[in-house]
Design a protein that fits this description.
It is a single chain. The chain has helices at about 5-30, 35-45, 55-70, 85-100, 110-130, 140-150, 155-165. It has one domain. The termini are far apart. By secondary structure, the protein is an all-alpha fold. It is built from seven helices and no strands. The protein is globular, with a radius of gyration of 16 Å.
Length: about 170
């Protein structure tokens, strides 16, 4: 089977970023919490109410990119700096989706469960579309991957520990 072109792989990755951003917006708008990776950013919006979830998502992800650089040092590949525009798109889309969809979120508890489930589906699909083309990874997941490689830790356990630390 022929490998898709690099351009197609990046398009698929960016479709995943858009879908994941939609998922985070829906999950947050449902009013029942947020994803583990977004939890620190979400809490910071309450500490600093003038700044949005997207702004804090960008700042947290940039911090995780710096963490990758510090862990990898000279082994850090400059292509990974593309995580910055990917994160910027991701963060802007979280705010855009939130702004567009906020007026449509229903008031009833049962309907909010539907919004939450749609958000989980969208986030899951988005993550799958980000990982499938194997071109980039957003900085929070990149930090987990880097830490697991540098320290020889199991990726799944490292991801669980990271998610718990973020919460």
């Amino acid at each position: 089977m022929r490998q898709p072109s690099l351009l197609r792989r990046y398009i698929l990755f960016f479709c995943g970023v858009l879908c994941a951003a939609l998922g985070i917006a829906l999950i947050t708008l449902a009013g029942m919490g947020t994803s583990a990776v977004s939890s620190l950013s979400y809490v910071l919006t309450f500490v600093f109410p003038g700044l949005s979830l997207g702004v804090f998502t960008f700042l947290v992800n940039c911090t995780m990119l710096v963490g990758q650089v510090l862990l990898l040092r000279h082994r850090f590949q400059s292509i990974q700096l593309l995580q910055i525009p990917a994160t910027l798109l991701f963060s802007v889309c979280i705010d855009l989706w939130t702004e567009l969809l906020a007026p449509l979120v229903p008031e009833s508890y049962g309907a909010r469960w539907v919004v939450l489930l749609l958000g989980c589906l969208s986030l899951g699909l988005g993550v799958a579309l980000e990982v499938l083309p194997n071109v980039l990874i957003l900085p929070c997941e990149g930090f987990v991957r880097t830490a697991s490689q540098v320290f020889g830790w199991d990726f799944g356990k490292t991801k669980t520990g990271y998610d718990l630390a973020m919460v």
